[in-house]
Amino acid sequence: MCPHQPPCPAADGPDRDAARTMVHHPEQGWSLLCNGVVLFEDTGELLPDGGVIAPHRPTDVPARTAPAPSAV
Length: 72
Known about the structure:
Helix content is 0%, strand content 22%. The protein contains no helices and 5 strands. Strand 2 (30-33) and strand 3 (38-40) form a beta hairpin. This is DUF5999 family protein.
């Protein structure tokens, strides 16, 4: 499917997001990669076989808290 050398990663590979962007629609929030993956701005993905990869950006990072004041 990919005409590039070296070829883009396969759609079922763990590095599928590294494929070249063929169509980019930032106003709609998606891009079509060379390997057939539709990549959404929320990091969700639609695979060529109809599979779905849920958004996977690290948004559930616990907030840092300040240390409790010491009693003097």
